[in-house]
Design goal:
alpha+beta; Immunoglobulin-like; Jelly Rolls; 6 domains; 10-stranded mixed beta sheet; 17 helices; binds beta-D-glucopyranose
Length: 936
Amino acid sequence: MNGPSHSKNNKALYIRFNKCFMQARWLFTLMILTATIPAFAQTLAVNGLTCEYQRNPVGIDIMRPRFSWKLTSSQRNTMQTAYELRVGSSAEALAQGKDLVYQTGKVSSDRSTFVEYEGPQLRSRMRYFWQVRVWDDHGNTSAWSPVNYWEMALLDAADWTAKWIGTPNPADTVNGPSPLFRTTFNLSKPVRSARLYITSHGVYECFINGRRVGNDHFTPGWTSYKNRLQYQTYDVTTLLTSGTNATGAVLGDGWYRGQLEKWKNIYGKELALLYQLEITHTDGSKTTINSDGKWKTSEGAIRSSSFYDGEVYDTRFEKKGWDLSTYNDKAWRPVKMMAADQSKLIAPVGPPVKKHEVFHPAKLIITPQKDTVIDFGQNLVGWVTLKMKGRPNQIIKLEHAEVLDKAGNFYTLNLRGAKCQNKFVLKGDAERTYEPHFTYQGFRYVRIKGYGGKVDTSKIRAVALYSDMAPTGTLVTSNPLLNQLQHNIQWGQKGNFVDVPTDCPQRDERLGWTGDAQAFSRTAAYNMNVNGFFSKWLKDLSIDQREDGAVPWTIPNMMPKTSAGVAGWSDVSTIVPWNMYLVYGDKRLLEQQYASMKAWVGYIQSVSVDNLWNTGFQFGDWCFYSPSPTDDSGKAAVTDKTLIAEAFYAHSTQIMIDAARVLGKDDDVKRYSDLLKEIKKAFMKEYVTPNGRTVSSTQTAYLLALQFDLLPEDQRQQLADRLVKNISDYGNHLTTGFLGTPYLCHVLTRFGHDDIAYTLLLQDTYPSWLYPVKKGATTIWERWDGIKANGDLQDPSMNSFNHYSYGAIGDWMYRVMAGINTDDVRTGYKRITIAPHPGGNLKMVNAQLETGYGQVSSKWTLNGDVMNLTVTVPVNTTALIVLPKAAQVAVTEGDRPVKEVDAIRDIKKDGQDLKLEVGSGTYNLKYNMARSMAGM
Ligand code: BGC
């Protein structure tokens, strides 16, 4: 080593160090300054901006988009008193307040969700930038929020210059090879930005210069294709290059012409692509690349694909580099020009399907029948990826199953006609990852065939795919079985919210069954943000609704028109819009669905005689408890189907009254109020004895009568007593099916029977929620006894292990057990109720919910009689905290008696409860229940 240069280096190092140190000191001082000064000035801030349910959406076609934002404040008890919103056509100008397209000025209002754009007409393709600032009731003004944006899609049919293209293949080649389409184009000028507007008949994946466009799956998604077809908008600026570019797409049958139940080719026989790439150059000029007669088509490695049956991917048919400009497509054929139909095109309002959790194999099993099976430890929906090299012509077959049978063998009978198999035919070239494209499976176990040698589980994964809904709720308790139940409910939701709310994700069904969706909708809205998801689906509902108002069994409807108009299923048309209004405050959705809701109730009216709906087909309380194989003891919990119909008729009519009131339709309020009286009279006359017993002595009959207030008030308690007795007669078991289950614990709570609600919740023998948990379930089952106590499996013709309806108990767990609820007047959690109901020997329940205003949380712990409740109330909301068994003198926050806590605006005693009116903030409340009750 050279001495002098060493010391020179040292000196240089020292100077550098010193400089760094000085800089760091400056930085530190600066940090302190920025952290302290603005913190005082900026106690109030705006964040979490969304436009039409999304953050910075690209490609929407809503002409009066709605804006929402959330507030944070370092001060408790803070409400927004005013906002100012401004919109511009460039981010930089907007930040300086220049070149504004629209500004509200300061608007005195506490509104921070769904604030409508009221500026000049929005233009196709334009990106608009927006920001907002707010004032609060402590005299603070926030800084302007960060700049967000939204971008309009193509608003006019005339904006579409692309042509629909297809293949010259004979039509009706379901389960045939996936067609490839490609073209090349030259870009001589630099690109400033580029948008791709794309859709298909069938499902598509698109590529530019060898790279996949976006990361969505099963696009364009499933809608009522005959009336509405979504197209996606992608920012593809970074995928383009100067010189020659190549682009292409591959199509699968998807919902469009693939098999749905027993039908195929429902929407058409031929696959087709519509592709419009609009490029803006740095000099402002434009180039558009359209699907047209110049494109070419061929077939590739996807030899067949089907949601039910799976996919065959044969590498020997790969067209290597087909989506690159260097590829020689001489042998490709010209595309076939298809009939133009741009009028049905719409931009999406719901989230696309994306990849989510990735699972490593939990176990490799060799079954008694010598099958090689991987257990992923979780029943999930998606597919399996496999990394391998393989041998030439090697065929790997992956079969999927939800359960093993009693003997531990691979079990697929409950998949019915769905093959659920993915096949990869290998070339033996370099190691790479194989995965399917246009199919998905519902599975926990995968049987591998053709692997050859020991399966290398380190190279196998399961990937969950589902609609990209933001997670909003978490719920944890001190009871691990309940936590598993909550886990199962959430996974039931993930697996069945695949573009539409499906009944199940594995067998030859996977349809938008309406009854299941209505039963689960409120629970779903606790777990994830389903506002956009249901908004999209409800539009399809109103479009597929029959002219006479009957709502189809499944949406989008692919069944005969006669499959419509059933109690508890078709009522999805009133129940879900109302639920979305309650939990998100989405009034526009209610407005949009109002005609459909009205038409549905109108339909029931039209088929009723003397206000009794007792004709036509009904599903009834689907999957209710029934002892098998015989029912000698008469224990089957059969509820008269027409009683159920009448009860839901009343329920939907009540929702019409509530919705009409919200929308200011006074005539309808009166009209439906009169109608409801008649329906209730008819119910009483037909289904209730003079002593107040319903003609069906089942839990579901009692529940519907009580939940929907069908009996006069003075007869309700006796019916609740009958319910309690019935539960005890079944040895503290529930007997409800899809329609009764959502109301079971709510009704018990309402009539003062929390203890029984908890007994049912914690029951772990059949039928109960925890029985499947004890049997190792990782999702919610279709039947209470999908696996019987002796390990036998239920009848395979109807035995899904991923069916969310019974998971509707999740609503009670969040709403009652943890106690988080929205007010039904100031909806969307503008005003919150936190009313926890401790019980069931639980020591702790902790629930959090991300609402439109921010996070609400309720955590209670019970240590002996000492109750600790921690509550978070977001800024710009107020809450009513209801403390059970509490006296004011006993409740403290820290050392302070509750009445001295300034953000607590009012305290009232109501029976055993203490009611606190509070503003935003976090509260840590503590009291001794026993001492409270003893008067201290
Ligand atoms: C589905 C159900 C659905 C029902 C109608 C079944 O095949 O899987 O969940 O609601 O049909 O009764």
